Amino acid sequence: MLQFSVYVRFLFTLLLSGLLIVGVKAQALANEKMVFLIKAGTDSSGNPMYRMATSQDQRAHQIYNRFWRDEGVQRVIESHQQVESNNNALNTPPGYQNIQKPSPVFVEIGNQTGTYNDWKGTFSVQDANGRIHTYDEPRVVIDLNDSMWQSRDQSLVEQTLVHEIGHGIMRKLYGKSDMPDTPWLGRPHYGDLVTDEQLALIEGWAEFVGAEFTGRHTIAEDPADSLTMNAYAYQDNGQPKTPEQLFKTEGWVATVMLHISKHPSINNGYQKLLESMRLSRAHDFNAVLRKYLSKYPEDGAAMQQILGKASINQFNSPMGGEIEVNNGDPSPPPVDVASNQSGHNDQNLLNLFNDYQSSLNTYAQLRLDMAHVDWYRGAWPQEIQRRMTFQQSLVKSLENRLISALRQTGEIHNHQLIAQTLLDNMEKIRFEHNRTIQSYQKSNWWNHSVRNKLKIELELYKELYSMNKTVTDNVNTDTLYEVWNQRNARMKYRIRQAEANSSAYGVPSKPNCNAALDKDCRDAYNKLIGAIQANSSGGNTRSALENYKIIDR
Question: Which CATH number is associated with domain 180-325?
Fold first, then answer.
């Protein structure tokens, strides 16, 4: 009997071990930073359909573990997600916190596909429960038959992945519709080849990212340190390339970017390049450099040194004449800030207003939590609803007290400060409302979950707008109109700046520019200041403010 019992326990142990092994084999190769995909066909719209790779896909599992252990890969993924987080923060209106998590880097494990980054496409992923999720995200494709796997220097594999993720970073900086376009895309190219300014910027940036995050300062299987040795500045006959040829050579663009990042007197060179590309959305490297120096003039001496050395002393500043930091435009109108230096003491009013704003933000966040309750593990909708109801009553109570205080005080200084904040809130809410309408119109009619959440956000924007507008209507009337006119003048100034920048950098304004309150984007500002423009044509501030409301379009 004892022998039989031991035998049974032994079998049970084997069975349990087998179950555990099966469980491990079924583990998805995915986390919040990186998701591995395997082609499974096409979706109903004809887009590629994928399943998540699992540990049963042995080759994919090996590659996943290899990439996951690599420090350079992890760092570039962090940069990829940080760019998206920055975009989300810029697009987050007042009234709620940014709750959007950045997307992971999607990596397709392909076979005879070629290795590249598809930053233009849309694709779908079917999860383990059969649900289909559609993404408009850059996607790295890694070909299992790529020659890099047979390279004598296996660090080329990691550099290739980082390079392709670099393309995804650029796509997130520019937006899909604003990426440089060139007939060279999809054609063979290499570090030394003279192509055109657009491809040189696209590939030069990716080559730089590959070198920056891996420490491998060359391109593909070119000689070691070819970037730091300025090898791409010369023609085949040993003569220096012309300035025009340099700006059409991806290896040279990567060289200059690497020198900017590594220069001892330049702080955060990588981040400065990111910001210069985001603000300019330039389609050539010369325009990126001009934007860089206009924003960071303190790096001018270092840039002269870098460009002089990299161009073999042919030039030490970007092409196109002198760079104007302020474009010769007069200074923007000052913002009148409330002050207690003149004996005015409205601190109780300011404290009450701040309490109101804080409570309104909390209420808005709870509304969003309720809409996205499925995002939170263990979330209890009833508890969120209870807190939301309480917060709503608190906001209403504070609103009544604030309106009463605004009506009773005759001091204008704090009225100015409050008016500025309220008008800022309403403009940003209007903007987000219109952007969400566009998302709703583009969403698939059958995707009820997404459309319902967008509907909730639209209703929230309307409610937040109405609340801010109610308080605004009780601000001292003359003070409100004065602040409105100041905003009008400042907006006009920023538009003049944007137009001057576009002209100076040779970058035309784009009708589909980033909806992120970008002061270098004229069209984004035009969307924000429709009422101000109406005011300019009609000359009636009172009428413009009275008609300043959310319009569904």
Answer: 1.10.390
